[in-house]
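Record minuted for completeness.

…
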Amino acid sequence: MAEKQLKFQEAMKRLDEIVNQLNDQDLELETAMDLFEEGLKLSKQCSKQLEAFETKVNQLMEVQEETSDDIEK
């Protein structure tokens, strides 16, 4: 079963939690490695989401510019 993909803000919050946990000096190595792996996955997910958001914004801006150009003609 595929893992549930978090919304961007949820993923960022979880990343913050992971960083705080990794800063705990009493953390066992195995736990730290698991957290680090989860953090990498979340970071990759956030990066992909940001790219998708950027693409969508660019598309919306292009549509807006085309609409403005049509109105001016």
